[in-house]
Specification:
By secondary structure, the protein is mainly alpha-helical. Among the domains are: 30 residues, no CATH class; 62 residues, no CATH class. The chain is 42% helix and 9% strand. It contains 5 helices and 3 strands. A 3-stranded antiparallel β-sheet has the order 1-2-3, with no helix packed on it. Strand 1 and strand 2 form a beta hairpin. Helix 4 runs antiparallel to helix 5. The protein is globular. It starts with 8 loop residues before the first strand and ends in a 13-residue tail after the last helix.
Length: 138
C-alpha cells in the first residue's frame, strides 16, 4: 500500500521527517504531546469512540420523537423517499445544521448531532452501506 505524504513533507531517514521546513529528527526519542500520551481510551486519538456513543444515544432517542401516529410507523422521511427526494433532503438538512453551527445558541451540540444524523441518513439513502468494504482505498 502506498501512502502519500502531505505536501512539503519528506522522509530523509527512518529517524527524520521534514514538514514545511521543520525537521523532526531522532524519532526514536520523540515524546508526543500530553494529549496523545494520555490517550487512555485505547485506539481513538480524538475520542471518536465517545462521539459515536453520543451519536448512537441521540439517534436512538429520535425514534421516540418523530412525527408519527400511534397507529403508523411512517415518518415524514418515508414520504419524502417515496417521491425520490430522500437523498437531496438529507444532504440539504446536513448542510443546514452544519452551516448554523456556532451561529444559533453558540456551538450547539444538537446542531452537530442533527447534521451527523442527516449524514447517516444520506449514507443510507445514497446506497453506500451496500458498498463492499474492499472498495475503499485505505
Amino acid at each position: 500500500m502506498n501512502f502519500e505524504y502531505p505536501m512539503n513533507t519528506s522522509i530523509t531517514s527512518d529517524d527524520e521527517i521534514t514538514f514545511n521546513n521543520f525537521t523532526l529528527a531522532n524519532m526514536s526519542e520523540y515524546t508526543p504531546p500530553s494529549s496523545i500520551r494520555e490517550n487512555t481510551n485505547g485506539f481513538w486519538k480524538y475520542e471518536e469512540d465517545k462521539t459515536l456513543k453520543e451519536v448512537q444515544d441521540y439517534l436512538s432517542g429520535t425514534y421516540k420523537s418523530h412525527y408519527t401516529s400511534q397507529d403508523s410507523k411512517t415518518q415524514t422521511l418515508d414520504l419524502i423517499e417515496s417521491i425520490g427526494d430522500a437523498e437531496a433532503f438529507c444532504r440539504s438538512n446536513a448542510i443546514k445544521y452544519l452551516s448554523r453551527f456556532g451561529k444559533k445558541n453558540g456551538k450547539s451540540k444538537m446542531d452537530i448531532l442533527k447534521a451527523i444524523h442527516y449524514c447517516v441518513l444520506l449514507y443510507h439513502f445514497s446506497g453506500l452501506h451496500k458498498t463492499n468494504l474492499s472498495d475503499y482505498p485505505y
